[in-house]
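Narrative of activities, Objective 1.

The group set out to show that a structural description can be obtained from nothing but a protein's sequence at a throughput compatible with the screening campaign. Below is one input-output pair from the validation batch, recorded exactly as produced.
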Amino acid sequence: MRSSGRRSRVMRLSAFALGGLLVVVAGVAAAEVPLPEGLSGDRSGLTTAIGAFDATERGQRAFELGVAYRWPVGGWIHPIAGAMATSEGVAHVYAGFSLDLLEVRRVALRASFAPGYYRPGRRVRGLGHPIEFRSAVEVRLRLAGGRSIGIEYYHISNGGLGSSNPGAESVSLTLTFPLGHRPRERRPRPIGEPDRIRARNAAGESATSGRSE
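Output recorded for this entry:
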């Protein structure tokens, strides 16, 4: 009873936190606030993760490894796909999107949402349905060379698709590596540049004609 009450409180707090993030996203979109240059999303990234699955349940915790890929489609919403597996045989394969929310100096905040297929493990209880939704928040620190290290918290649940919906939480240490290269930005030609070029060409032609005479 005590365990179910604690899980219920955690789920309510998770829903509150995610709701707050959605409010931030809606506010940014409504105000059309330009995001910092670092959030332009023009580079793909491969993220590896190591952590604890079902971290709030003492008897259900398991060692977790994960990997995810983020596509550089531009803007601040990006497609993602990933998978995780635990020491108890749990597996989750998912695809969805991530949101670049905020960046202050080298510290960035990112959220993501992704449905996927869930397989329960040997000793870990099922989560009520093979389709589980992954909602995550990550705080990361940018490092040299485009890499970053961070802490990610995510909640996974079936959203009421099954007869039961116990949900689970995970906390992981993440390391992200950039893949590919940023496209080179074309520097706009300053206003008046064609006029200066034409003036130099005209001066050269005048000097040439003067020497020929």
